[in-house]
Amino acid sequence: MPRLPAHRFRPWIWPLLAALAVAGCWAHAYWRAEQVRAAAVESARRDLVHHVEAFELYLTRSVAQIDQLSMQLKEGWEQGGGRLALEGWYRDGMLADPAHAAIAIYDATGKLVGRAGRHADNGPPVSFVFHRDHRSPALRIVVPEGTVQANQPLVQFTRRLDDARHGYGGLVALTVDARYLTSFYNPAVLGDTGLLAVLGDAGALRLEAHGEQVRLGAGGSLFSTAPDLGGAKGGTQFDGTAFYDRSARLLSWKRSGAYPLLAVAGMTAERALAPARADWNRRRGRALWLSALIVLLGATATGHSLGLRRERRRRDEERQAYRIATEQGSDGFYLAAAVRDAAGAVCDFEVTDCNARGAFFYGFERQQLIGRRISTLDRALFGEALLPVYLAAMTAGSHEDERQMGTVNIGWGRRRITRVGDSLAITLQDVSERKSHERDVERLTLHDLLTGLPNRQWLARELPRRLAAAGERDGTLAVLLVDLDDFKQVNDTLGHGAGDRLLRMAAERIGALLRPGDRLARMGGDEFVLLVDPAADDGETAALAGRVLAALAGPASASADLQRIEASVGIAVFPRDGTDHETLLRHADIAMASGKNERKGHYRFFDPSQFVLLSARAHLKHSLAAAIDAGQLSLHYQVRVDVVSERPVSMEALSRWQHATLGMVPPSQFIPLAESSGLINRLGELVMRQACAQLAAWRAAGLPLLPVSINVSPHQFGYGSVSGQLARALAEHAVDPGLLEVEITESAMVSEQADVQAELGAIRALGVRVFVDDFGTGYSSLSQLQRLRLDGLKVDQAFTRELDRSREGRVFFQAIVSMAGALGMVVVAEGVETPRQLELLRELGCQQAQGYLLGRPVPAAAMAELLAAGEGTGRLANPVIMLSH
Question: 20 to 30 Å CA-CA from 508: which of 346, 500, 580, 885?
Answer without folding.
Answer: 580
